[in-house]
Amino acid sequence: MDPDYIAQDVARCDLCKTAIAQSYCDFCHANICTPCIGIHISNEYDKHKIVAIHQRKSTLIYPKCESHQNKTCEYQCKDCSSFLCSRCLASKQHNQEHEFLELEEVFISKKEHIKKDTKELESQILPVYEDIANDLEMQIASLDGEYKKLTTEMSKQREDINREIDNAFDQMEKDIGEIKVKHHSILQKHLDEIKQLQSFMQKTFLALNEMEESNEVCPTIHYSSKIEEFSKLPPKVNVSIPKFIPKQMEREELCSLIGKLTPLSTTLEERVSTGNKPNTSVRELLDEPEILNTIKTGHENLRSVTCLNEEQIWTSGSVANIKCFNNQVLQKTIKIKSGDYPYDITVDKDLALFYSDWETRTVYKLKNDQTEKIITLQGWRPNNLCVTSSGDLLVTMFIDNKTQAKVVRYSGSTVKQTIQFDDEGQSLYSGRDIKYISENRNLDICVADYTAGAVVVVNQAGKLRFRYTGHLSPTKTETFKPYGITTDSQSRILTSDWNNDCIHILDTDGQFLRYIDNCDLLNPWGLCVDNNDCLFVCECFKGNVKKIRYSK
């Protein structure tokens, strides 16, 4: 059906109330059927404007002239913004040195601005606020689990203390409850503010839709855009979960025996604006990347590298050990108990090492020479790992028959999120082989899907943002096969291209920026970036890690 005639098909005449209206009076704003037109215009014939109903509101309603009765103003003074009719101009009552604009042109220009703002509000700003609200709701929903871990840790300490100090423990549990309430209150406050802003923007959006359909000049030309105001995102709320710090057993004051709780720590982190203006990088890309260091690891089939700091790295390959290097000096070697090689390694903020064991279906945590099983799977095998900015662990995994793959987010050993399908129910990832993973600064989850020949990026909620399938270049003729992946402080995505012996650098939206292909790389595999945005690249068969500076 032609959309221009939809209104005509359903509108009833405002006079007889029964017949279908074929016409519309743009002066009276009335739907009129053909037989009722004569009745409607019988009085003051000259003032009515009868048009076909699909052309309703096509006649502009100009403001009345304050100086000349029965005249409408079709002009506006650009210098003083006053409305003028043709007699005002002819009589030269207004300053003739001023510049005059036709209101119809101003109206059309403002209409275009309204359409643009409506589209930007609907497609760019409102979805970002929806993501912010979802993030806060997820934090609130996970509070019980996080605080339950606190009380569990405290209970382990409590078992070693005499029954006579139970009252002190009860007091501390009360403190935890109060902190939890405060934590909830802080997040809820910010969520309420976000939802209030969302509501205001939704009302603005509806108002814009109404104005877009309106033919009234005054409200339209007085329209003032709020897009710049809306685009200034609120600061991100970071509230850290308190830590239970146990203390050595002593027969003194009961509270000092138990330990203490760290207070809530709340910080406001500036968000990236939703506007279309380009984000100026603090660290621009170098025209010619340079090799700073080459570390000979001695690994067979070097696969993974992860940074402890600017000098120390962990490495692993196709042998049952993990090595720690400080520059080129081997500091430590850890033997894998199962005898199988680690599929991937990563570290968290506390410098604890995580590694995945494909054979035992387990992810282990190693700290202070103590190994702990964190996750053990049934029917699935863990692949690659990434610790997020919030301390969660992202694990890529595939089913035993290698037909399905997914990304699972863990808090400790608790599943918080599973990412497997897009909005159409199609698999986001191919069903087999390695899938290195990294979290971007904007909380996007980036996966290098080797089998699919693509970098797959979803947002924090698991919604597909884009797929990058390589960049056409006369010098890169082999099929794009991404292995390792990492992200830097500017939210750029770096992925190793095994077949073409280079690194692709993408911006946060998946647009190709440039290659790193001048560092004599051979079969690049695992990647990581340190705090100074220096890149560490595994050369698989050489067993070397190259440290490369690629940005200023």
Element layout with pairings:
Layout: H1 6-10, E1 23-25, E2 30-32, H2 37-40, E3 50-52, E4 75-77, E5 83-84, H3 86-90, E6 100-102, H4 103-141, H5 143-158, H6 166-213, H7 217-221, H8 227-231, E7 236-240, E8 244-246, H9 254-258, E9 259-261, E10 265-269, E11 285-296, E12 304-307, E13 312-316, E14 321-326, E15 329-335, E16 344-347, E17 353-357, E18 362-367, E19 370-376, E20 380-387, E21 393-399, E22 405-411, E23 414-419, E24 435-439, E25 445-449, E26 454-458, E27 464-468, E28 482-487, E29 493-497, E30 502-506, E31 512-516, E32 524-529, E33 534-539, E34 544-551
Antiparallel strand pairs: 1-2, 1-3, 4-5, 4-6, 7-10, 8-9, 11-34, 12-13, 13-14, 14-15, 16-17, 17-18, 18-19, 20-21, 21-22, 22-23, 24-25, 25-26, 26-27, 28-29, 29-30, 30-31, 32-33, 33-34
Put the structure in a nutshell:
With 552 residues, the chain is of the alpha+beta class.
